[in-house]
Sequence to fold (364 residues):
Amino acid sequence: MRKLLLYIGVVLLCLTTGCEYKDIDRRIFVVAIGIDSGEAEDFKVSLKLAIPQGEVTKIDEKMQIITEESNSISEALRLMKSRVEKELDYVHCKSLIIGEGLAGRDIRHVLDWAVRRRDIQLILNFAVGRPEALDVLKVKPPSERIPSNSLIMAMSGQGTESPFIASVYSYQLMRDVYEQGKDPILPVIEAEGETQFRIDKIALLDKQKVQLVLNPEESRLFNLLTRPDLRTNFPARVDDSEFQYYTESSKSAYKIISSEPGAPVVRYKIKINGIVEENSTQELITHNLLEQISDAGEEALEQSVEALLEKIKKKRLDPFGWGLRYGTRHWNNETEAEEWAALFPVLKLEVAADVRIKYSGLIK
Fold:
């Protein structure tokens, strides 16, 4: 019996093949991908490559950007393999930038390719590059030591915690593109020369392309409505004095109130606890003045949020998932989508803010 098992083991070992693993010195790591509209072909694909160094103590890592045009993204990548001497490795790729021109036409082809690609993770960060994705990839801030690490840290929230940036992973984007009742969003990255970029705008899409780009102030309000405990500041004017208060904690929630006689109402409630961060006067801040600042902050915030919601509604976009919420509370799957489409244009939007400024930020 033992001889038989030994014989079977030897036969199985003869049938096994060697692995295709290649050492690190025979690989080039792709850390970011940029896809734009091509001039002669449909797509212009750019890869930002990090070239491994022998010494881990080196301060600056080498990087390289290669670009290829093709009618197919996959074909462009195959053509690029003939331009480098090492194997392209995508396991460290964390950013995919879609050029503004391509994002204004259709993102679904790029998204479908990224999700299907077996060696690209579903936690890949998506963004819109302005003016082109290639311009964003070329940016190398002086503080960057690892190629494309500045983009990765900014877009994922591992580094800066900006109130203007919205992180969108590939699995989230895929879900929102095909989910009925919610529309996708993407952060906008603007290249400012070769050493600086800016991420302070959010693009709102329908199921296919960009329809509206929010300015920085609108992007901050959007994040306030979709992200708990947003660390930021808001203005409050009392008489002729201007104050800025910092949000120590914040939360936002909404309800859809529908009744047969009237139009449905989307009612938001925003609660903020904050401190006075900036005072344009030398006036001593008393308890009474703190209450006035709170009231002024509530009024200004309500007006700003209502204006943003109305602007988004006019474009018939639903990045907050109102339609999805409506569907979860109505049980007729065959008609609820049509009902919501008919109700959306006549939605009423209400915002109630509760701003509480706890103290002045000074130690007496």
